Structures are given as C-alpha cells and as structure tokens.
Amino acid sequence: MILNSYERMIARRYLLPGRSESFIFVVASISMVGVMLGVAALITVMSVMNGFRADLFDKTAGLNGHAVVQGYGGSLPDWRAIAAEARQVPGIVAATPLIEQPLMGSLNGRVAGILVRGMEMRDITGNPLIRDNIVAGSLANIKPGSGEVAIGARLAETLGASVGGPITVISPQGQTTPFGTLPRSVGYTVGAIFEVGVYDYDNAFVVMPMSDAQTLLMLGDSVGMIELVTTDADKVQEIVRPLVPKIAGQGEIRDWRQNNAALFEALSVERVVMFWILSLIILVAAFNILSSLIMLVRAKTRDIAILRTMGASRGAMIRIFMTVGVTVGTLGTLAGVVLGFVLLYFRQGIVDGVQYVSGQNLWDPSIRFLAEMPARTDPLEVIAIVALAIGSTFLFTLYPAWKAASTDPVQVLRYE
Fold first, then answer.
1. Helices (H), 253-364
2. Is residue 221 a contact partner of residue 77, using CB atoms and an 8 Å limit?
3. What are the tens digits of pLDDT across the range 3-33?
4. At what angle are helices 379-405 and 314-345 packed, to 10 degrees?
5. To 10 degrees, what angle do helices 347-358 and 314-345 make?
6. Is the dihedral of CA 238, 242, 246, 248 positive or negative?
7. Which H helix or E strand runs over 181?
8. CA pair distance 378, 148, nearest whole angstrom
9. What are phi and psi for residue 17, nearest 5 degrees?
C-alpha cells in the first residue's frame, strides 16, 4: 500500500493518538497483544506437535523399520531367502532379521515385563538410536556367546540393574516334564544401558546378539521377523507390494501405519483441531482491531471532514485507516513470531519450571511416550500463520476504512 507524505503523517498521528483518545490507544494495544499471543500460541503448539510426530516416527521407524515381515507362529525358517528377495525389490534399502519376544526380567526379587530383541552384531552397532544413546557401559561388551546384553535406562531403574551387574530373563518356553513345561531362567550380565527417548522402548528393551536370542527362545536357525526400510515411508505399501506373493504361506507384511494406526491418526486429527481452535485467538484479536478502528473513525469524524474539504480523496481516507489497522496487526504478528521462537527455545525449561512450581508432572514419559518435549518448526506453517494473521487484519480494516471514506464533510461541518 503506497502512501504519500501527508497520508503517512496522518496515519502515524492516528497510531499514537492524543490524551483524549487514550482509550482507543489502549484498545489497539490490547488488540496487538492479542494478535501476538495468537501467533505465538499457533507457532509453538504446531511446532511441538510436528516435533512430537516426527520424533516418535523417527525413533519408532529407527527401531522397527517402515514395515516388517512377520512370520506365522513367530518364526521365519527361510529368512535368508526372504531377506535376499526383499533387498531386490526397488525402493527397499534394508532388510534386517530380528527376533522380538515379550518375556519377564528379574533382579533381586523385582520383576518387570521386558521385550527381548535379538539382532546381528552389525545391526546392533550400526543402529544410531542405540549406538548414539548409550548412557552407561559400551556396545563393545555385547558379543555372541558373551552372555552380556544392553537394556533400556527405564528398565534398569525399575529393576535396579547396573553395568556389570546381573539380570535374569525368564522364558515360558522351557523343558517339558510330566508336570508340564517348566519356565527357563537364563542369567545375563548388563553390558550397556541405552536411552533412546521413547518410554516404551527404554522401559522394556533387552537387546542381545541374534545367536543368544535364538538359544534363549530355542528357535534354532529361525528368526521372528525381517525389518524393512524403504526410500519413502509414505509410500511403503506400494513399495512392499511386490514382496507379498513371495512370502505367501510364511508370513505377512505390516507397515508402520498398521502397527501405530490409532496413535498417528489421533495425532493428525489433534493437529488439525488445535490449528483451528488457536486460530480463533487471532480472529478475536482482529475483531478488536476492527472495534478500535471504528472508535477511531468516530472520534476523528471532524478531522476527516476537514481533510476532505482540503482536498483529501476517499481513497486517501481508505489508505490511511487501513494502514493504521494493518500496522497494528503486522506489529503484533512480528512480535508473536519472535515470542513463539523464544518459547520454543526455552520450552523444556518452561515445562520444568511449571512442574517445579505446581508440583505436577506435566510431561510424564509413560503417558507422552517421549522423554522430553520435542519441537520441529515447519517454515511453510509459519508463513501460513503469518499470512492468516495479517490477512485477517487486512480484511477487518476494510469496513472502518470504507466508513471513514464515506464521511460527508457537509453534514459533519454544518453546525461547526
């Protein structure tokens, strides 16, 4: 919007009205603060929800892949041929054999449910989620036949386990006797403790070499599943479709959507709902700008009439009052962007501070899945939020600007 010098001077004067219009200035200031809070809330909440979904997906896919070939009965005897076939399918970049079995872990009378995961050594040391999140011990201690395992940090806390200490794994698949099947109790040494940041994994995982898991579960040379990683997680169903007939009768393929359908669907719905609910804050602030401009037009009716008699056009009046409203909205939007990024930067400190003051656990990992509040800002979303705020402000300035331009100087000045 291009203004000439006198239009800019008048717009600047109306942005900072005199003492007689101090109430209008207060309303405009409140409107600007409303826009700021709305924009900051939208940026913060959307970034946190994006980060939550992205972190949860990255860590889930990092440990479970984009899809798995699950053997019927929990066993894939011909897993080497299936893995070789999978690697030949275009779009599949990795096929990793796994053994995964829920069992029980025990130490000094404490018992907890665990998830034993058997992996080949190159997959254990090559997995960045495990390798880069070791909090005690070393993966170098984990070797086939060594009797050492890596466990999650939360599980270590639950059982009171430490590096170099024992842990007992109890399997229901044991020796058959005339009195029934006796559970097997196998002792291991904790060689490493990891914390990937997902509560369910840190609270249950016991990672061991593939051969040790096969011995524990008496699987022979079989594995339980094959983890598949693809080039595009969103097109995983199309990519793995050619593999379906090749595993017929041996197992089924389940992708990340099927394994976590309810959770990711809930996140998507919540994300959309939160966007529209928080957008109402911006709309309410825009209504406040509308009301403050209407009051400004009413207060400046005589000034407008004098300007019109001095030659100011209707277009000039429209530009002046639209400039006033859009300036308030733009300043509020820019302040909101800055505040939003400040809140995101200090988000974990803010949560910890509120928890300390209130005495409430606002971010319980057992409920939130992740150990810390994540955030991932999408530049396109920020642009959309800024456009929504400034666009709403622009639209709500049209009526008061048109009302100012429609002022009849003859009627206003007749009795002056």
1. 256-259, 261-299, 301-309, 314-345, 347-358
2. yes
3. 677 677 777 777 776 666 666 677 778 888 8
4. 150
5. 70
6. positive
7. strand 180-194
8. 43
9. -70, 165
Residue 5: how many other CB atoms lie within 10 Å: 7
Are 158 and 110 within 8 A, CB to CB? yes
Q: Which two tokens stand for residue 204?
A: 């249950």
What is the rounded CA–CA span in Å between residue 71 and residue 74?
Answer: 5
What pTM, to 2 d.p., does this model score?
0.70
For residue 115, the cross-strand partners are 102, 205
Distance CA 325, CA 378 (A): 28
Q: Note whether 154 and 211 are within 8 A (CB).
A: no
pLDDT digit string, tens, across residues 75-102: 788 888 888 888 888 888 888 888 888 8
| Residue with token string 């995982």 | 205
What single letter denotes the amino acid at residue 363?
W
Which structure tokens are listed for 232? Answer: 């595009």
* Bridge partners (DSSP) listed for residue 107: 110
Tokens 């456009």 belong to which residue? Answer: 387
